[in-house]
Amino acid sequence: MTTLDIDHLRQWIGRSETRHDTIGAAPIAALAATLDRDRLDAPPGSPLPPLWHWLYFLPVHRQSELGPDGHPARGGFLPPVPLPRRMWAGSQLSWHAPLSVGDSVSRVSTVEDVTAKSGRTGELCFVKVRHQVHGPRGLAIDEVHDIVYRPPAPPAEAPAATAPVVGSDAPRAAWQRDVLPDDVLLFRYSALTFNGHRIHYDRRYVTEVEGYPGLVVHGPLMATLLMELATANDPRRVARFSFRAMSPIFDVAPFSVCGEPDGQRAARLWIRGPAGETAMQADVGFDAEAAR
Predict the structure, then answer these.
(1) Apex CA 55: angle with CA 71 and CA 202, to 5°?
(2) In whole angstroms, what is the distance from residue 156 CA to residue 220 CA?
(3) How many angstroms separate the CA atoms of 236 and 291, rounded?
(4) How far is CA 250 from the centre of its chain?
(5) What is the secondary structure of 90-143 as a DSSP string?
(6) Residue 160: predicted pLDDT
(7) Containing H/E element for 272?
(8) Which of 37, 92, 151, 268 has the fewest C-beta atoms lying within 10 Å of its C-beta?
(9) Whether the predicted model's global pTM rises above the 0.85 cut
(10) CATH code matching the domain that covers 156-292, chosen among 3.10.129.10, 3.30.540.10, 3.40.50.12230, 3.40.190.10
């Protein structure tokens, strides 16, 4: 059993790093193709769609600096949590100024908290990181990123593949898009975000080492699909967004991206898994009158 030295890990609180980038057009066109959108030309000055800032400030580590799971070896900017399974558990974001193609941007990241809890499968460690993205017009995006580290799953407790819900057991939401994930989609998104985490593209690793029934669909990819659904159904500019991952989704069955209006300036969003379970919850808030 791993015993967390939480006092040691909390020494990372306050650690900060700054990265610089330029909002380029090529990643925007590539993500549009990956999401099966019409070709998205993005000449200089074009607005960056909400959440697409995740295409920038990518971690660029040498091959020798990666751990066995494809993530960078621990103990640099993030604390060296000794639990093997890492998941982006959720985020809370607010938009303050627009970002456009051609903008020179910077991101200041700070470890804000490190906590430990005891869960059903053992010890859990939660790391909270704040990212503040600045562009030519000042602070553009303020994001809190929640990371959870978990112990390996015993074989008996590994998530099982589930059969799709059919008929009246799967009522359609006000807004809904059904998605059939496959290894090509997951590989392309991993490539776009330079994400080496093997659970998203290495089927042998994810099933034999981490005990999952299939490739894991990226949390930020699901969050992006939720945002795409919301902005396709509401023309106003996004002011805030939050999401929380509740259970993993695998590439072995389709899932549904769902949403509905929630009052005058918000919408409620969720990912419905193949057995009807809620795999992710999200909320989006819009500016009262501003159009994108």
Answers:
(1) 40
(2) 28
(3) 4
(4) 15
(5) EEEEEE-S--BTT-EEEEEEEEEEEEEEEETTEEEEEEEEEEEEEETTEEEEEE
(6) 55
(7) strand 266-272
(8) 37
(9) yes
(10) 3.10.129.10
Half-sphere exposure of 290 (CA within 13 A, CB side): 11
Which class would CATH give 1-152?
alpha beta
Residue type, 157: E
Indicate where the chain has its CATH 3.10.129.10 domain(s): 1-152, 156-292
User: Does the structure show a pLDDT above 70 at 157?
Assistant: no
What SS3 state is found at 53? helix
Residue 216's SS3 state is strand
CA neighbor of 250 nearest in space, from 222, 282, 208: 222
How far apart CA 282 and CA 285 sit, in angstroms, is 10
Contacts 24+ apart (CB under 8 A), 30-36: 30/188, 30/192, 31/55, 31/192, 31/224, 34/185, 34/188, 34/189, 34/192, 35/224, 35/225, 35/228
In degrees, rounded to 5, the angle at the alpha carbon of residue 43 between the alpha carbons of residues 37 and 46 is: 75
- Residue 216 pairs in a beta bridge with 250
